[in-house]
Amino acid sequence: MRKLLPFLIPLILGACGGLPNAGKPPAFTPPAASREATAMAFDGLPRQVLREAPVVEASLWSRERGSLLGDRRAGTIGDILTVVIEIDDSASISNSSQRSRSGSESLGIPSLFGIPQRLDPLLPDGASLADAVAASSASSSKGDGSVSRNERLTLRIAATVVGIQPNGVLQIQGVQEVRVNFELRELIVTGFVRPEDISRQNEITYDKIAAARISYGGRGQITAVQQPRIGQRIAEKILPF
After folding, report:
1. What span, in angstroms and rounded, lies between the C-alpha atoms of 70 and 53?
2. Number of neighbours of residue 64 by Cβ within 10 angstroms
3. 72 and 153: one domain?
4. Among 82, 113, 146, which residue terminates a domain?
5. H or E stretch including 184?
6. How far apart are the first and last CA of the chain?
7. Fewer beta carbons below 10 Å: N end or C end of the chain?
């Protein structure tokens, strides 16, 4: 029994790990623990340091952010912009190969100084040196492979500017959680954007985000059922076949 304890303890702990959440929906991530909350608490840079031009006192129009012609695009730490994710990718790859080869060899000694005729009576019935050696071979191989992929994702998420690089590039991060019954869907977007790529509607598409990391998944009862059990995962790791 003591020899089995090292194997039984991980199985028991893995089975008990989900008991506290049994019958309960998955919990949300505390917003205060995110980088977005930290960035929003930042005072930000003075507005004059950004891309706003000085206002002429005699002008009837103002370029302040609250005015009609003001630049409301995100530009400093704590600002919010909308990330538009519209992925519609498809790829198809197919290849095939085929190879075949055949050959045959035969060797006979019908007459060699009369030796075959003298040795044939000594050979078993039906054997003869007239066809001493005969060999044939054949080989063939065939391979087919194909890859087909089709991905489509349409999402919109609000992201926060969490940092500004020395060259003015903005670092953004957005986290969105939606819970429906006992299933929690989580969308995470991070990356770097140029201020000039942000539209007048304060939006940016995913294909203009450098080093983009987009994660769309979830956790909850449905996700847990779709995952293999801990015993099966351990068996896949240790079994050599």
Report:
1. 10
2. 13
3. yes
4. 146
5. strand 183-193
6. 27
7. C
Tell me how far apart the alpha carbons of residues 216 and 209 are, in angstroms, rounded to a whole number.
17
pLDDT in tens, 204-222: 999 999 999 998 888 888 8
The count of domains in the chain is: 2
pTM of this structure: 0.57
What is the mean pLDDT of each successive set of 10 residues along the chain, which is 241 residues long? 60 55 66 69 56 55 61 87 90 83 73 69 70 73 83 90 91 92 90 93 93 88 79 78 60
Containing structural domain, residue 195: 23-92+149-238
Q: What burial letters (b/e) apply to 108-124, b meaning 16+ CB within 10 Å?
A: eeeeeeeebeeeeeeee
Taking phi first (over 0 means left), then psi (-120 to 50 degrees means alpha), and beta for anything else, what does residue 39 get?
alpha
Domain identity same for 99 and 195: no
| Side chain identity at residue 173, one-letter code | Q
Distance between CA 107 and CA 131 in Å, rounded?
A: 6
pLDDT digits (tens, 9 = 90+) for 169-186: 999 999 999 998 889 999
